[in-house]
Specification:
By secondary structure, the chain is α/β, with parallel strands linked by helices. It has a ten-stranded mixed β-sheet with strand order 5-4-6-7-1-8-12-11-9-10, with helices on both faces.
């Protein structure tokens, strides 16, 4: 008798979503603004050495010191997500918080230690101490947390998981580092990014709500790019290609089955070329259209928050019926070379 071939992991479901971004103080407002092509890229109150204003995107309602802004953004986001939750619902959930990588210039010192206590103080309620995890992987943090949440839900360790990411790159230290390393887009350097700030969160469930608007995450994939941005050798998209293949295998889909891509590309040519290389390596038949949505045009590079932004955009587009089709892929990649993707599909 042949051994039983294990099937893909069970689907998990996207419940509520929440966001605070430069284009909206809630998820509905942010998603509507991004759909409409509204951008909040504007002059920052920071100048480069030639006194030319630099461009970025910030949340105008957030006027806090650099270390406090992360707590303010995250607290506002979680207040939206948990607006009518009772204490027991908070206590029976798993909580994941995505942050930038340790050592990133401009990251608040020891934020992984004080973020949760300060967040609890701002919210006025406590998180379950044995059900809180910090994921420090930059743009791939949220999707890595989704994988951990899927395991917890499968083991019935929690009833639901809340996964949030937060980032602010519009402080003087971060902007100065981006300028120094020629990562910042200016009139002198068109191949760069615009810094931004945001917090976003998604509720992940093990079972559907029974609504026709249920949205599933059916595949996750991870990879490592051996030639990340700044490397001497050119990127061949090995890491992202491997991540996409793994996610497609879990979802039992072919690359041609996908209807649209939602990406964290920042405006730098490196990441746009990488996204194009994946298509050339995996697409084996003609598609009339294969749109690439990216939030950076509206809200700048929001780092560790972007995974939840992309999942929120995907879920909202599927629920409201303006997605290009029922099968979407969210793609993220950190500067360190880590890559993470999720297949998001409509229906139960």
């Amino acid at each position: 008798m042949s051994a039983r071939v294990p099937g893909p992991p069970s689907s998990i479901y996207v419940g509520r979503v929440a966001m605070i971004t430069p284009v909206g103080l809630t998820a509905p407002a942010s998603c509507a603004a991004m759909r409409a092509g509204i951008s909040r890229l504007q002059d920052l109150t920071i100048f480069h050495p030639d006194r030319e204003p630099l461009i970025g995107a910030y949340v105008e309602a957030a006027d806090f010191a650099d270390a406090e802004i992360h707590v303010h953004l995250l607290a506002s986001c979680l207040q939206e997500l948990t607006a009518d939750w009772q204490v027991d619902r908070i206590a029976e959930s798993g909580w994941f918080f995505g942050l930038s990588e340790p050592g990133r210039v401009g990251r608040p010192a020891r934020i992984d230690r004080w973020l949760v206590p300060e967040l609890e103080r701002r919210l006025g309620w406590s998180l379950p101490p044995n059900r809180v995890w910090i994921v420090q992987a930059g743009r791939t943090s949220v999707l890595r947390a989704v994988a951990a949440a899927r395991k917890l839900l499968a083991e019935r360790a929690v009833r639901r998981c809340v996964i949030a990411g937060v980032e602010s790159d519009v402080d003087e230290t971060s902007v100065a580092e981006l300028y120094k390393t020629r990562r910042l887009k200016t009139t002198e350097n068109p191949d760069g990014l615009y810094p931004g700030e945001a917090a976003a969160a998604v509720e992940i469930l093990s079972s559907p709500s029974g609504s026709a608007a249920d949205v599933r995450i059916t595949g996750l994939g991870f990879g490592m790019e051996p030639h990340p941005i700044g490397a001497v050798q050119p990127c061949r998209a090995d890491g992202l290609t491997a991540a996409v293949r793994s996610a497609l295998a879990e979802a039992r889909l072919d690359f041609a089955d996908l209807d649209g891509r939602i990406s964290d590309v920042t405006g730098e040519q490196y990441y746009f070329r990488e996204a194009g290389l994946v298509v050339s390596r995996l697409l084996r038949q003609h598609k009339d259209g294969f749109p690439l949505w990216h939030s950076a045009d509206a809200i700048g590079d929001v780092g560790a928050a972007v995974g939840a932004v992309l999942l929120g955009v995907a879920a909202t587009a599927l629920q409201k019926g303006y997605a290009p089709g029922p099968n979407l892929i969210c793609q993220t990649g950190a500067d360190s070379g880590t890559r993470a993707v999720a297949i998001v599909q409509a229906g139960a």
